[in-house]
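Below is one such record:
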Amino acid sequence: MSVERNQDWGEVAEVPDGIEWFSSDRAASVAISTARRANKPLPQVGLTGGDLYQTLGGGFRSTPPAQGTPATKLSIDLGAALLDGKLHWFLAHLVARRSWLRGPVVVAANAAHLGSWNIAPKAHPGDGRLDTLEASLAFSDRLKARSRLPLGTHVPHPDITMRRSKASQWEFKRGMPIYLDGTRTAVVHSLSIRLEIDALDVWI
């Protein structure tokens, strides 16, 4: 069940045996994609860093919690992307862009943060929706938006379209580079995304 406004989310639970700890979104999503393609159960994921970890309120820790000790357990949504016919998964965000400073930019955010930017201020990884932003701004407006990104005050903006949905698709006339959880993964002409609700348990 997706989280609702003013509803408690997550629980304190013992860290299970066999949990895999990841310090980045990409490392976790690669493990998830590998399991999905092999038709194996998803790994039990623990996070010690990354944009989703920051969105979930995770703080600095030198070592992850030990097995059997208490930690925060959260059921999160998982992004799935069909890139020219091949399925991939992402934990925090998908970005379609050639450059941040020119050309169209599409962001599908499961997490609010992208590095030091609060790129999708209302994104919540357990609410059953992906926050998508589509932008095609003049260069001067991009510089202004870039300075506002750390605080999330770049939106609303008349040239940034925001939507919240379970699925979306795009067609590009020219090949568009796709970045999954910060890593360039493919160059595509066709992009479809959907959200798998409550797909993954995460410990922080």
Q: What stands out?
A: The CA atoms of residues 112 and 120 lie 5 Å apart. Helices lie at 25-37, 51-55, 139-148. The longest helix spans residues 25-37. The longest strand covers residues 183-203.
